[in-house]
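Show me any protein, fold above all:
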Amino acid sequence: MCVHGECVDQYQDYACQCRPGYEGKYCQYNITATNCSVNNGGCEHDCTESEDGRSRICSCVTGYRLENNNRKCVPKGSSACGQLLISRSEYAAPQDGPMPWVLGGE
């Protein structure tokens, strides 16, 4: 199942631990971006760099989950047309400057 990695057994599930240079749910993708400052590291929502700067991890805002490519975010549930699945109650104070992420709108 894990193309370029090792399968890690989890309770009623599994995960792939990728070899260096690969990513994705099945370690099937070459890592193409490791720096979040370049095109947000290829992440659709949030990008976090490792301390050594040699890798990055994509994550999604509340209400979304990562697709198998570990870059694109998809809604966990359905929403009304034109509405985003994000709780504004998480932000009690107004945000100064640009928001920390950009949501895709295809």
About this structure: Residues 87-92 have pLDDT under 50 and may be disordered. The chain has two domains: 1-31, 33-77. The domain at 33-77 is CATH 2.10.25.10 (Laminin).
